[in-house]
Amino acid sequence: MEFKRIISAGVLAMSLMACERPAPEVGIRDAITDIEQAISARDNAGVREHLTDDFQGGPGDAAGSLDKRGAQRMLAGYFLRYKNIGVVVTAITVEPLAHDPEQAWSEASVVLTGAEGLIPETGRAYSVRGLWQFRDGAWRLAQLGWE
Fold first, then answer.
1. Number of CB atoms found within 10 A of residue 22's CB
2. What gap in Å lies between CA 105 and CA 96, rounded to an integer?
3. What is the pTM of this model?
4. Are the C-beta atoms of residues 28 and 89 closer than 8 Å to each other?
């Protein structure tokens, strides 16, 4: 009887641990890595799965000008234009919102390059800021602005 209680308690503890959401810093960094890899692989769906359905984004002078479908079209344009796309994300910071642990801001420096062959034909550095929300068991990007 005691053995069954120990096993039951162990199963319950493991179940509860499996339901916990990852710390914002870990979950968001993992999502950023996934997005970085999806862009490099020209995988539009791989990027979109990390965006909320009500995603809003855009450059500093037109923040909020892109919705999720607009982001999809923008990526498709880059994928058609460049055979090889390089993405480097550095200096990532994540700051959870004190009043809502299911939201967090991230900031990063991003370098994007595009090329038909091995040597990049174009490249640009961006400073990006994103609002992440924990939805459906994962951290998803709700807002993204860049300059």
1. 15
2. 6
3. 0.81
4. no
